[in-house]
Write a structure and sequence with these properties.
- With 193 residues, the chain is of the alpha+beta class.
- The protein has five helices and eight strands.
- It has helices at 3-22, 24-52, 57-78, 83-89, 114-126, and strands spanning 95-96, 102-109, 131-135, 144-150, 158-160, 163-165, 167-174, 179-186.
- The strands form two sheets. It has a six-stranded antiparallel sheet with strand order 1-2-8-7-4-3, covered by helices on one side. A two-stranded antiparallel ribbon has the order 5-6.
- A hairpin with an 8-residue loop joins strand 3 (131-135) and strand 4 (144-150).
Length: 193
């Protein structure tokens, strides 16, 4: 995903979050409407599939899939709210620090080991086509672990010690809550983690 795509997802997340917070009734009606379209399409898809099941089963499957896809198009035309689309967009609402760097935030229970933190950072960066280039010497320092990486998919980058970096994953353990705060940002995270 390149920077423009991440920005579009971020803007969509902010719009969905704003809709839920300002007009929950409208959001709720859109969700009911989307569910209705999916239910009707599923019923119609099964009917079409059964009509062709004995004579031409391959056409029954094709027509069933075609009919079901019409429901998805109707949902997008009327602005329905599907749970799966909201997971992709709202759960990844990005935030900005004072310098305009984008990041997403999450938590996990307990404290990750250094190996677990490094493996998770690598996995997160691989989702954007990147890799970990440097980290906190592979150990936790004062309940914090930071990993830096690079991907060609994001244009913004900073050069540190001769290495171009545009991905940051930070982990901060909170012993009081027994949870680890995780920030994933680009190009660098300039917030207190």
């Amino acid at each position: 995903m390149n920077y423009e795509d991440v920005q579009k997802v971020s803007n969509a997340a902010k719009a969905k979050s704003n809709l839920v917070n300002t007009n929950f009734f409208k959001y709720f009606i859109r969700a009911i409407m989307a569910g209705f379209f999916i239910d009707v399409a599923m019923i119609y898809s099964n009917v079409v599939g059964n009509v062709f099941s004995k004579t031409m089963p391959e056409w029954g499957k094709f027509m069933g899939a075609l009919v079901f896809s019409i429901a998805v198009l109707l949902i997008s035309f009327v602005g329905g709210e599907l749970f799966t689309g909201n997971n992709m967009v709202v759960m990844q609402e990005t935030k900005q620090d004072l310098y305009g760097n984008e990041y997403i935030e999450g938590t996990c229970q307990g404290k990750l080991s250094s190996g677990e933190a490094k493996a998770l950072a690598q996995k997160m960066m691989q989702q954007l086509g990147g890799t970990v280039l440097m980290d906190s010497k592979g150990i936790w320092e004062k309940d914090a672990f930071v990993a830096y990486g690079y991907t060609n998919g994001i244009k913004k980058a900073r050069k540190i010690d001769g290495t171009w970096l545009n991905l940051t994953v930070s982990f901060r353990y909170n012993a009081e809550k027994d949870e680890t705060r995780i920030l994933f940002g680009s190009p660098l995270i300039n917030v207190d983690f």
